[in-house]
Fold:
Amino acid sequence: MAKADSFDSERWGRVPCVGLAMALTLTLGGEAIAQTAAAGAPGEADTTPTFSRDVAPILQRSCQHCHQPTGIAPMSLLSYRDARPWARSIQDKVERRLMPPWHLDTTVGIQDYKNDISLTEAEIDTIVRWVDAGAPEGDQADLPGPLEFPRADAWQVETALGRPPDFIVRSTPYTVVANGQDQWWEPQVEFEGFDEPRYIRAAEFKPSFPGGMKVAHHGHAMLRGQDPAEGEARPPSVRLVGMGIGKRFDLLPEGVGKLLPPGPATVRFNLHYFPVGEEITDVIDVGVWLYPAGEVPSKITAGERQFYVDGTHRERLRASDILIPPHGSLVLEDQYVMEQPALLQSFRPHMHMRGTEMSMTALYPDGRRELLSSVNRYDHNWQIAYVYDDDAQPLLPQGTVLMLRAKWDNSAANRINPDPDQWVVFGARGVDEMSHAWIGITYLNDAEYEELAVARAAADTETSP
Ligand code: HEC
Structure:
């Protein structure tokens, strides 16, 4: 995969620069150009983006946390030396909005997300012009100070919250074969539990480093209370955390928590691996951060819940509604009526290799229809949670219909389609299909809903002219 792009600025980048330098020499003389350019005077020479001044800050913000020696990306983009051989490939991926991985339609729906790493049109333009100009380095004095990155096997939530997890649950090891189809591993681990109810602030799913991080495609960990005594109800199961490439943890806002019922429990892992050409043994650690003992957060959330678009939740055969002909396409829709008001925190579509789009639309009780989020460049290699800014979280009154729409493309135009000549049906392998969204959802009572609706309306009048 990490094939170096043969980028030759000598050959295809120089010509326009030479022409420009000659034109300026005629009017200003060689010395003067060097000085005006260094002083940043306006003029044509100055608008050519350089790595040091214009590109490095973009790479720092949107690329380097993955593209660094211990990151998940195939190559480092820390320095000019690292980035230059990849210039043409960078231009291509950035222009087509394939990198950084953010597959949301940026022209419709909500655009305020906590984890938005997408580039602005101006940033894309800067990178494109930089490469077109021969990817010049510029003056090293313009470089921003280097960033420091936590080790790839550090807890990402620890970096955010400043403290290690309160407890860690470790799966039993599994060896992924070097070559083959998808593999599943569903170990169960006993958890002694707490004597009192506790509330989860965050949880993180950490494959082993470096091997596990290459093969762990997605998975989740569920905590299920042990069999209750005669006549007692089983405590509710808790989904600790779900992981997919590009998404490893759930961190709830301060004051929002997920209930961890007291007592011993079993943690069930559901792990989906994909072989990468070498045999790799992995163990998964799930770290959990709690609110202090005795503290009850003001809002209790259900966390990420699974909303199916295929027929799984209906009384019909699961495979019956996904049947995609060779070179064909399919659209499925499903809807959920909110029986309680709700606040949405995040949207994470899940399909497989033929999946190309998933959108979520709210049909409000007053008849208004609002497209909330549309992932229109879905890529099975990535499982990204789009996490709404606090003020942008969709607030759904009781009776709202939440509509989900999934689209598959089994043609050769789908660049990760393994074989457009196949019929595609429902199944758990990446070459089969499924569709659901993991939606971060907090159900509200009427008073909580009213309070939020009033606060939102007040904020709207303040900001509108
Ligand atoms: C969330 C992690 C992440 C971020 C952020 C990210 N990348 Fe990547 N990048 C990857 C991974 C993983 C791959 C290999 C798999 C793929 O192509 O999807 C990759 C592949 C690439 C490739 C293709 C490499 C090849 O083998 O051909 C380029 C070029 C690239 N990234 C550039 C960028 C640029 C430029 C940015 C920022 C503007 C960026 N990436 C941001 C993780 C990331």
